[in-house]
Amino acid sequence: MKTDQVIKILFIEKSVEDAEQIISLLRNSGIAVRPARATSTEQITAALDELGPDIVLFDPSVGTLELREVSRMLDAHGRDLSLIALVGQVDNATITELFVNGARSVALRPQPKQLMAVIQREFDALNARRQLRRLEAALRESERRCDALLDSSTDAIAYVHEGMHVRANQAYLDTFGYTEFDDLLGLPVLDMIGANDADEFKNTLKGLSKGEKPSGAIELQARRADASTFKASVEFAHATFEGESCLQVVFRRQMVDANVIEQLQRDPVTGLFNRARMLECIDEAVAAATQGTKGQSLLLIEPDNWQTIVAGVGLAKADELLAAFANRVESQLTAQDTAGLLAEHTVGVLLHTRNDEGIKQWIAGLQQAIAGGIFDLGSRSLTITSSIGGSLLGERNANTELLLNQASQALRNAQSQGGNRSDLHDPAAREKADEERERYWKGVINQALLQNEFVLYHQQTISLQDAEGEFSEILLRLNGPQGEVLPGFFMPIAEKHNLTPAIDRWVLNQAIEHLRTRDRMGMPTTFFVKLTSGSLEDKDLLPWLGERLRQAALKHGQLVLEMTESKVVTALRPAQEFIQAWQKMGGQFALEQFGSGLSSFQLLNHINADYLKIDRSYMADLPQQQESQKKVADICRQARELKKQTIAEWVEDAASTSLLFACGVDFVQGNFLQEPQRLA
């Protein structure tokens, strides 16, 4: 499931707390959720109209509704969605009854991993069905347009089924001297070929009828209705006509020089295939994989520290160096392999007919060839290393976009470990590789704590209501081996190994130092600092924090601690005690992702937040989303009644800013207003 998608879930169960646990489980896994809850037919109807859910989670113990009744309502509404039965335990009779009554899947509440797997599988299946319908509609539209283009094309094009004409455009009729298509109907296409080329043409048709891939254009003498001939280039493609498989045959009198075509497909600097041609090769490899072809893999290769090297040798020599690098790669290829330039300095390689061990040996050989050689650039000589990431290609990942993403992620993994490394995506070895990467990054995090290798950024939070002073959100980065790393990558590992309390203290200490410096410069500022749930159990944190603020002569209100709503809900008691103690010291607290749960304002009965940071999902395409605008306005209205201030994050355009001002939002924050800047 893509983590940047918002999954809309309708809960049909009696317990709000049970629903919130599932929402927290999903959000903690990085999945954005837009939830609603219903316990009656009227509420279900309203939720179907307002929320438009993707998934309905039904608890048979709800008591007020039967599964069959709910299934009929969903079918009557006409929206394609997944109905999942949510139970505590199962047996054969229970599962049979649930499926008979309309459930698409059954999820076990006491088994979070199974529950997540079922929701993810059903959401993926739902998206696949929706995508299929879009593709079918697009196919129908494409067929309509192709038919129109066929008639207007100046190329002579015909569709042939079992060697007989079934469709031809006007240019085809004109080329061969026929008045109307009825003259061609049922006529063998072989009659259009000169006697000397008939055998070659017949053999080509036989091969294509067996499913062979078209090998390219063939040159022959074509014969007109009046028995005159002309030299033509003929191209073939598999097609369908009125639902039947057939061949598209194109006759061209004027031929393009093959050398010109070859030149257009090449990158002028490296001599490798250019991006467009290389993507075509990847598409062809993916198509072959869907037919069962094995032993293929895609590799992405980049020289390490490219920007630094270019800065040293100068831009004038960059192309020369890249060409030499590409030549080193090309020298390791066999006749069956393909290489092309996919990005500025990223070389893509398709390897064929190699097993896993053979691919690893090839990678090791290439890295040795690159690192062991010298690159001469005029009067300068240098050595470079390379990072290689790739993915094995099989039927399960036979999708060009997916394959490129897997190879790209593998490349980034290799680079993050210091360069001159390789990483090969292999689903069978994923778990082992993840464990190895986790051990590596745990060591990097520990080193960062010891050697101050974390970095702080800040993003200004703009007041729409003329609040005094400056306000900024503190953002954390880690200085990794290949540059700065975002917390979304390393914080889950830190949390798993209980390193987050130490990271929180480092961030708080640095933030206090910067606040003290700004006070001395006459720039009073308020910092919003994220706090992890691990710090709630740290009994010494608040005394230490109070002492640091006293030493820095800062007001406690200049430091606003914040946590996400989902984290607070899952640790309500310790969060409540921590926040109360912090506010008694004069501190302030902010709730992030507010409005994302089923009972966000009920949470404020237990958590006295000073700021409510509205969930970012409401900011997506805000000017076009009437539902989101209504929800934001409602949150602001209730917040004003409770004397709490609201903050809208991820604001990306001027139209959204104007709408948020009209809704009554107090603060806005986003890249449109200010990009994150390093805290200096």
TrEMBL record:
Keyword tags: Coiled coil
SUPFAM superfamilies assigned to the protein according to its UniProt record, in alphabetical order: CheY-like (SSF52172), EAL domain-like (SSF141868), Nucleotide cyclase (SSF55073), PYP-like sensor domain (PAS domain) (SSF55785)
PROSITE patterns per UniProt: EAL, GGDEF
TM ranges: none
Residues covered by the EAL domain: 438-680
Database matches in InterPro entries: CheY-like_superfamily (IPR011006), Cyclic-di-GMP_PDE-like (IPR050706), EAL_dom (IPR001633), EAL_sf (IPR035919), GGDEF_dom (IPR000160), Nucleotide_cyclase (IPR029787), PAS (IPR000014), PAS-like_dom_sf (IPR035965)
Coiled-coil segments on the chain, per record: 125-152
Keyword Membrane attached: no
Ranges where the GGDEF domain occurs: 294-427
Region of interest (Disordered), ranges: 414-435
Highest taxon listed in the record's lineage: Bacteria
Comp. bias regions, Basic and acidic residues: 422-435
Name the record gives this protein: Diguanylate cyclase (GGDEF)-like protein/PAS domain S-box-containing protein
Source organism: Dyella japonica
